């Protein structure tokens, strides 16, 4: 590891005392751009950047603390706008070195923000409806964003194997990123995942291990492996690299606002698995406000779950602060985390912003997948069915205001969850003749 002493913003502009502070907060050795230290979300205890994820004082989750003090708003905006058409345009706001775009990685992000007028008409939305379509990422889910951050952290900490516990999409994202960056990969999934996800994870050539159990069992196993000599040199993107990984979700917030012309949406509907994505979208929006890149005005964040794995929406509706674990049983396997680590923070954010957490059952998920495909030509995986279905429900119940600008996330690709719409197929089978065509009523 290089013996650098200061983790300053990539382009510090003017130097000041806060820069010096970050140097003391991070006396060590890694260059992760503006990331200054790890800070406990519960008690604020700070530790130097490293492959740790839990506070030594209170076991709270650690997250990245930045030093953005040197940035000039207009200069930062220009720099972002002239950056590459991927997440690295936001490198000054991420825990990555300034030259990250030159390193071998999958360059995810800058996915389409689709103005969904047809869907808006069906749902009665008049204030502008957009689908942020993250199926356009390199491995066809939002997970490429988070893995790209974890990969940089793995490089910085000298890891040689990339690993994770996964509900499916993460496995593919890790396999692909490792292949491109020249890392070994070994990823762990529940043994009964959708075939599409298994193939997509395996094709990149790394080790793919099915665990007899559900995601929460897989996660527990990975925690054990990290503490074992067998796991030495392994970066588990969503365990010991979790603080870095999680920051990747901020790029969804950045992109949505920039694509809206540096404007906050009024309402965002976000799927919840562990809840990490939702909490970091909120963090990203807060940062844009603090940096002066968007106007400071209220926004609401809504969480979306599948009924068959709805620990957070259950707690929200019951008015509880604690999230009681559930045993998942839903077709939305990418969201099937029964014991979501960031559940309590999701509840805080939904309540603080005036949003809500809602759930839809499997039939409603399938309906919503078809609705989005039929209205906008977007084939979403089950997670997209969850957000679109929940959006419809929130409009019906009056919690989501149809007169306000609304962004709905589609975080994955329908080709990975074909079983969900298995009944979909041919309109008719005919002989190759005009008679037969007419008989079938197709004219
Ligand atoms: C992982 C995942 C999410 C969000 O997961 P969090 O753990 O809540 O960050 C959303 N959609 C899809 C398709 C995913 O794979
Ligand atoms: Zn703490």
TrEMBL record:
Residues 14-25 have a biased composition (Low complexity). Residues 108-412 form the Tryptophan synthase beta chain-like PALP domain. The keyword Secreted does not apply. CDD domains: Thr-synth_1. GO terms for molecular function: L-serine ammonia-lyase activity; threonine deaminase activity; threonine synthase activity. This is Threonine synthase. It comes from the Bacteria. PANTHER family: L-THREONINE DEHYDRATASE CATABOLIC TDCB, THREONINE DEHYDRATASE, MITOCHONDRIAL-RELATED. The modification N6-(pyridoxal phosphate)lysine is found at residue 143. Its EC number is 4.2.3.1. Its cofactor is pyridoxal 5'-phosphate. Keywords: Lyase, Pyridoxal phosphate. GO terms for biological process: isoleucine biosynthetic process; L-serine catabolic process; L-threonine catabolic process; threonine biosynthetic process.
